[in-house]
Specification:
By secondary structure, the chain is α+β, with helices and mostly antiparallel strands. It contains 4 helices and 5 strands; from the N terminus they run H-E-E-H-E-H-E-E-H. The longest helix is centred in the N-terminal third of the chain and has 11 residues. It binds tetrahydrodeoxyuridine.
Length: 126
């Protein structure tokens, strides 16, 4: 698994974001435990609350294709600072990973590199 390729995949898919209401494009790309790559973008809606985040779209796409693990996930936003995953996406990521690596990149050299367990300590489970 090549992190630079993963970062590039996130940047490439950012062209597909549908974010006319917030003008805040978000792209996600991740490798599962098999090294297979999945991507997603945020998809907004005129009824704002129906918006789906990039991370959750990537995960739904992966699950639809038969993948149920997340090894390393990159979030890209064309912003000066990195964007962390929202709370809902943290719970969604946790569902499919023991402790996924989460890297946020942007259009400056700033990067955050952490894990889902650090972002979502004490997460809900049954
Ligand atoms: N957004 C994501 O795609 N992922 C996140 O983790 C945070 C927020 C999107 C949702 C919405 O389209 C835009 O960013 C502004 O909130």
């Amino acid at each position: 698994m090549n992190i630079e390729q993963l970062k590039q995949a996130a940047k490439d898919v950012a062209a597909k974001t549908y974010s006319p209401y917030s003008n805040f494009p978000v792209a996600a790309a991740y490798y599962d435990e098999n090294g297979d790559l999945f991507t997603g973008v945020n998809v907004e809606n005129v009824s704002y609350g129906l918006t789906i985040c990039a991370e959750r779209n990537a995960i739904c796409s992966a699950v639809t294709k038969g993948s149920r693990t997340i090894h390393t996930l990159v979030i890209y936003t064309p912003t000066p600072t990195p964007t962390p995953p929202c709370g809902a996406c943290r719970q969604f990521i946790k569902e499919f990973s023991e402790n996924a690596r989460i890297i946020s990149i942007c259009d400056s050299d700033q990067v955050t590199d952490t894990t889902i367990d650090k972002l979502l300590p004490g997460s809900f489970t049954l």
